[in-house]
Amino acid sequence: MSAAAQETTTGGGESKHKHHGPRRPGYLKLGYHIVVSNAVYVLLAPFAVALALRASRLTPSDLAAARAYLVANLQLAVSLVSVATTLATVYLARRPRAVYLLDLACYKPGPEHVVTRETFMEQSNKAGVFTDDNLAFQRKILERSGLGQETYFPAAVLNSPPNPCMAEARREAEAVMFGAIDSLLANTGVGARDIGVVVVNCSLFNPTPSLSAMVVNHYKLRGNVASYNLGGMGCSAGLISIDLAKQLLQVIRPLLEYLLVLLVARSTPIQYGLEFMHA
């Protein structure tokens, strides 16, 4: 589940110049991945084709002869069927179970959190902790990052002067997490007590108690719930969270009903009283 609290708008026209450079071998990599991932089926495909061709050439007399042979060697036929059934059962039992996304919810703040780029720069100037070079760098990032004129920011950034403290950071985290989770539970009809695992990822804000513990305590999740809190790993940890959830569902699936993944993007801890280091 994603809990992003930002809406952006972008502008600019499309480039009229098309680059006709050499194509990247993306299709080759995709084909290689498909072949390796389905190596068993690729190896068995020639045998399946040969068997199908042989079966298409059978005549009624051939079928009658095969039936007579099986009746005469009933013990061998039963043994072959038993071996085939055992191998199929073992294969199906050891095969990783497919994992599906049940639903996705994204937190959207109220209209009081909508600001323009000019308002953000005005608030940064009021903070009194940034030099002229810092403010110029922030203005350059705003212009090039794609943030529009209806971007959401937390109350700590909108206060005059801004007060990015621990209390405001925790307040923002609670609003984002609980708002997204409430929407998700309402859309799916899943009860909070049905959640067996909670995975939370937030790079910048890692308080004690952890964000995952805040979720567990707020929704009164069951006593044997397993919670994982990932922090300080950047935005790429979102993919790590999804992969962790997938592996947990495949390993301990008999012990849980649902797994909740929470990806939190925080803005309050970004504004601190230190100079930006930039080239």
TrEMBL record:
<feature type="transmembrane region" description="Helical">
    <location>
        <begin position="73"/>
        <end position="93"/>
    </location>
</feature>
<keyword id="KW-0012">Acyltransferase</keyword>
<dbReference type="GO" id="GO:0006633">
    <property type="term" value="P:fatty acid biosynthetic process"/>
</dbReference>
<keyword id="KW-1133">Transmembrane helix</keyword>
<dbReference type="GO" id="GO:0016747">
    <property type="term" value="F:acyltransferase activity, transferring groups other than amino-acyl groups"/>
</dbReference>
<dbReference type="InterPro" id="IPR012392">
    <property type="entry name" value="3-ktacl-CoA_syn"/>
</dbReference>
<feature type="transmembrane region" description="Helical">
    <location>
        <begin position="30"/>
        <end position="53"/>
    </location>
</feature>
<feature type="domain" description="FAE">
    <location>
        <begin position="91"/>
        <end position="262"/>
    </location>
</feature>
<keyword id="KW-0808">Transferase</keyword>
<keyword id="KW-0472">Membrane</keyword>
<dbReference type="InterPro" id="IPR013601">
    <property type="entry name" value="FAE1_typ3_polyketide_synth"/>
</dbReference>
<protein>
    <submittedName>
        <fullName>Predicted protein</fullName>
    </submittedName>
</protein>
<feature type="region of interest" description="Disordered">
    <location>
        <begin position="1"/>
        <end position="22"/>
    </location>
</feature>
<dbReference type="Pfam" id="PF08392">
    <property type="entry name" value="FAE1_CUT1_RppA"/>
</dbReference>
<dbReference type="GO" id="GO:0016020">
    <property type="term" value="C:membrane"/>
</dbReference>
<keyword id="KW-0812">Transmembrane</keyword>
<dbReference type="InterPro" id="IPR016039">
    <property type="entry name" value="Thiolase-like"/>
</dbReference>
